[in-house]
From TrEMBL:
Keyword Ion transport part of the UniProt annotation: no
Superkingdom of origin: Bacteria
Name by which UniProt lists this protein: Cytochrome c domain-containing protein
Cytochrome c domain location: 70-161
InterPro entries: Cyt_c-like_dom (IPR009056), Cyt_c-like_dom_sf (IPR036909)
Organism per entry: Hymenobacter lapidarius
Pfam family, one: Cytochrom_C
Transmembrane residue ranges: none
GO molecular function: electron transfer activity; heme binding; metal ion binding
Entry annotated with the keyword Heme: yes
Annotated keywords: Heme, Iron, Metal-binding
Length: 173
């Protein structure tokens, strides 16, 4: 019996592709791989959202530490899972564009808003009511995210905003 090495290599290659696709899908769904919860338990230092947002717009936003890089990666995954259906950084989809969000509202306001916007609107907060009315009284769903997870999302938005500004400036030249 002859051994067909090409057929074997193709079979092994296809098996690896299937495993990688499966792991990617499970990871995107939060069922395997890096978890933002594990990140939150390993990190004791809060994420410097304001520092990232205040970086100069003429250079790419480079996080200062490995912890911030991990937080931004977690924010990216959390954004794609929870926010991307209705928001983008630089364009209005269902809800407002998130570029400049840390300049429009402080993090102390954003945390309860993201967790339960209905409650903030019901409290009579002027800004919350204005957003609610501006977007056709479309209610943002409540999210069971920790403060650390929300700050990770905000850090990712700040980096994307800074990188988008650099990309636009380079394209304009």
């Amino acid at each position: 019996m002859r051994f067909n090495s090409v057929g074997f290599a193709l079979s092994v290659g296809m098996a690896l592709v299937v495993v990688l696709i499966g792991f990617t899908l499970l990871s995107a769904a939060g069922l395997a791989g890096f978890s933002s919860q594990s990140f939150a338990s390993e990190t004791s230092r809060p994420i410097a959202v304001d520092t990232l947002a205040a970086q100069p717009q003429d250079s790419l936003a480079v996080p200062a530490s490995a912890e911030e890089v991990a937080a931004i990666a977690a924010g990216d995954a959390l954004f794609k899972t929870n926010c991307a259906q209705c928001h983008a950084v630089n364009e209005v989809i269902v809800g407002p564009a998130l570029a400049g969000i840390s300049k429009r509202r402080p993090v102390s306001w954003l945390l309860p808003w993201i967790k339960n916007s209905s409650k903030v609107v019901a409290s009579g907060d002027e800004y919350a009511v204005a957003i609610y009315n501006k977007y056709s009284k479309q209610q943002m769903p409540s999210f069971a995210l920790s403060d650390t997870e929300i700050k990770s999302i905000l850090a990712w938005v700040a980096v994307e905003e800074a990188n988008g500004a650099v990309t636009a400036a380079v394209a304009f030249r």
